[in-house]
Amino acid sequence: MDKVKRIALVAHDNRKIDLIEWVEWNWEILVKHKLVCTGTTGRLVEETLDRKKEENGNTRTLSVTRLKSGPLGGDQQMGAMICDGNVDVLIFFWDPMQPQPHDVDVKALLRIAALYNVVTACSRSTADFIISSPLFDGQYVPIIKDYSSYINREL
After folding, report:
1. What is the pLDDT of residue 148?
2. pLDDT value of residue 10
3. Is 93 helix (H, G, I), strand (E, B) or coil?
4. What pLDDT, on the 0 to 100 scale, is given for residue 99?
5. Which of 3, 42, 66, 106 gives 20 to 30 Å between its CA and that of 92?
6. How far, in Å, CA of 96 to CA of 110, rounded?
7. Helix ranges restricted to H, 57-93
8. What are phi and psi of 61, to 5 degrees?
9. What whole-number distance in Å separates Cα of residue 20 and Cα of residue 47?
10. Where are the alpha helices (DSSP H) in the chain?
11. If you write DSSP's letter for every residue of 25-53 in order, what string do you get?
């Protein structure tokens, strides 16, 4: 994991305001990294970061990749990026009080993140701990479990 992190930002509709507030609070850190977001969340993140940069005279180029909306396949796109080693941190403010039509996709995304040992936050307090960690600013080598025995097993 390089010094410049590839940070995935995802939020369900009822949690988008929470995520955008978190982005506003941490914008100076986030603009130094590569962001990937699902659907509407990506648009809101871009708008927020553009506004904060303008307010503060920051000229750094933003790196925000926008995927499809979660229910339209964005969660699977994000999962594929994790499998390919293209996500270092997943910040996913999901709504535990609202059933989602794509709940299986949400569960699959969180499962893949755990499988590939991706740093994951599902709440603001966890996201705060991650972004303020001394490990966040430097290189870090996560330990990825070797699944070759599983792949090569006899059926």
Report:
1. 84
2. 95
3. strand
4. 67
5. 3
6. 13
7. 74-83
8. -75, 135
9. 10
10. 16-25, 27-30, 39-56, 74-83, 103-115, 124-132, 148-151
11. HTHHHHTTSEEEE-HHHHHHHHHHHHHHH
Q: Is residue 1 part of a domain?
A: no
Classify residue 84: in a domain, yes or no.
yes
Angle ∠(81,62,29) on CA atoms, nearest 5: 85
pLDDT < 50 regions, the chain:
none
Would you state the pLDDT for residue 105?
80
Domain containing residue 68: CATH number: 3.40.50.1380
Burial call 63-85: b when 16+ CB within 10 Å, e when fewer? ebebbeebeebbbbbbbebbeee
- Catalytic annotation, residues: 75
Question: pTM for the complete prediction?
Answer: 0.90
Single-letter code of the amino acid located at 34: K
Tokens representing 135? 């490990």
> Residues near 102 by Cβ (< 8 Å), separated by ≥ 6?
70, 71, 75
**Could you tell me which residues are beta bridge partners of residue 120?**
90
Q: Which domain holds residue 107?
A: 6-151
Residue whose C-alpha is closest to residue 4's, from 101, 65, 105, 87: 87
